[in-house]
Amino acid sequence: MTPPAVSARDWDITVFGATGFVGRLCAAYLAAHAPREVRIAVAGRSREKLAAVAAELGREVGVVVADTGDPAALARMAASTRVVLTTVGPYVRYGEPVVRACVEQGADYLDLTGEPAFVDRIIAEYDEAARARGVLVVPCCGFDSIPTDLGVLWTTRALPRDRPLTICGYMQGRGRFSGGTLASALGVLASPPPRKSRSGGSTGARKRAAAIHYQRALGRWGLPLPTIDPMIARRSARLRGDYGPDFSYAHYIALPRIYHVGLALAGAGALVGAAKIGPLRRMLTRMNPPGSGPSPEVRAKSWFKVTFVGRAGDDPPVVAEVSGGDPGYDETAKMAGETALLLVLQRDMCKSTGGVSTTAAACGELLIDRLQAAGLRFAVKQGGE
């Protein structure tokens, strides 16, 4: 069974969840940067709110009413567009119906999730069907996990790939959570981890044991950062097959002093505890309700930098870096928007033609080029071929 012809579709990119904080930013980015021939639609539950968003965008966009609890409406949305970019989370609760509709209707799917349980679920349930239909399902197209995923790819390009590769990533930055991001994070922390991740581990892509350590190349302490990013980097290594005969990756937050490590551990412990206690979790959600987020002034002062220290065998290290502005919102909208535009404008050049993929595996070098042109910085600071 083949998907509907591209010419039969009304829209090229549909932003689902466009009335939310991040969805509105994604829609605004696409409206400002997509070529005029790219047809954009905004989608969500309220036609009235969607019309208000559309009126702000400065170009003609479509309005599509759809709800995660209405499979028929999701099917109509997916059948009417080439790419669905969904910002509706927590994805473990609301994401799967959108994936199902996209796979069944032949629309490529993108999201901003950082939820390991959700990614594992869609790999298990939809990878085979998506491959058979020629549909690309690409989760984690925002700050989780593009800087890490493409930063690892960028680092491997500076290393000889005929030897085992070991890469560690160190994240630094400044920013604030939106209500939706906080709700998703609390949901992840409150849920038990998946028993066995399908996102990463495989022959030739190993999970590296992470421990607190001092990284001399950065002059920083590395504290293991339990995000989805390492899982995505390892899945990219498996899908691409060109990260050397053996590959491992570990992910850290970089902190200047050892006492900062203690403070970070205490704060993380408190957040995990709050996530598991219902009244505290609800209180935090009420204080930062979904739909709210940091102001443009706050976002203008936010930034991120991920530094990668890579080695091929026992060779001297290569130090590479990916950096940009506000990580969770402005740059996330840019990352997701450019990924969506790539799937519309350069789909025939992608390495992956279908399945549950990653940005590095599906369109890595192409997307690096687009993001560099859009202002994200990729650099090799030390060593490299």
UniProtKB/TrEMBL annotation:
Signal peptide: none
Start and end residues of each Saccharopine dehydrogenase NADP binding domain: 13-138
Protein name (database record): Saccharopine dehydrogenase NADP-binding domain-containing protein
